[in-house]
């Protein structure tokens, strides 16, 4: 079993910054990719950013230039540095990972979500 523990959400004023962290624990050999999604009230969950084990990154157009995703050398933690936050960034942010065990295909795991609220 693999668990994702998110932290770093909270309330911030527009223009401010927050850093989200997500730590994976449990039984796995590797995780590829890891990423962040978000879901605003009344909207569908959407991709924010992903990072592969080879450090390739992908961002939603709405956050390019403002958010930066990274992961630690051990490969079990992913970060999302969010700068120049806007009220439209308000959402529950979910960590997403695709861990793999020996001799098995990758499977998908979600975190419980952390709320980010940006006030105007």
- Total E-strand runs: 11
User: Unreliable stretches, pLDDT < 50, 5 or more residues?
Assistant: none
Residues in β-strands, percent:
over 45%
Distance between the termini: 40 Å
SSE order, as H and E? EEEEEEEEEEE
Given the C-alpha coordinates, what overall shape results? elongated
Mean pLDDT across every amino acid position? 96
The DSSP helix count reads: 0
Q: Helix/strand/pairing class, anyone?
A: mainly beta
Helix content: under 10%
Radius of gyration: 14 Å
Largest sheet: 7 strands, mixed
Written account of the structure:
The strands form two sheets. Strands 2, 4, 5, 6, 9, 10 and 11 form a seven-stranded mixed β-sheet that branches. This protein has a four-stranded antiparallel β-sheet with strand order 1-3-8-7, with no helix packed on it. The chain is mainly beta. Strand 5 (46-51) and strand 6 form a beta hairpin. The model has no long low-confidence stretch (mean pLDDT 96). The protein has no helices and eleven strands.
Q: How would you describe this structure in keywords?
A:
4-stranded antiparallel beta sheet; 7-stranded mixed beta sheet
In short:
This protein has 120 residues and is an all-beta fold. Helices cover 0% and strands 56% of the residues.
Question: What's the topology here?
Answer:
Blueprint: E1 2-7, E2 10-13, E3 18-26, E4 30-39, E5 46-51, E6 57-59, E7 67-71, E8 77-82, E9 91-100, E10 109-110, E11 114-119
């Amino acid at each position: 079993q693999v668990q994702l523990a998110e932290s770093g959400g909270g309330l911030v004023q527009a223009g401010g910054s927050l850093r989200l962290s997500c730590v994976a624990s449990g039984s796995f050999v590797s995780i590829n990719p890891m990423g962040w999604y978000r879901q605003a009230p009344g909207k569908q969950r959407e991709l924010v950013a992903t990072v592969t084990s080879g450090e390739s990154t992908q961002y939603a157009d709405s956050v390019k230039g403002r958010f930066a995703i990274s992961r630690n050398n051990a490969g079990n933690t992913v970060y999302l540095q969010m700068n120049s936050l806007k009220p439209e960034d308000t959402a529950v942010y979910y960590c997403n990972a695709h861990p793999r065990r020996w001799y098995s295909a990758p499977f998908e795991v979600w975190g419980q979500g952390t709320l980010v609220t940006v006030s105007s």
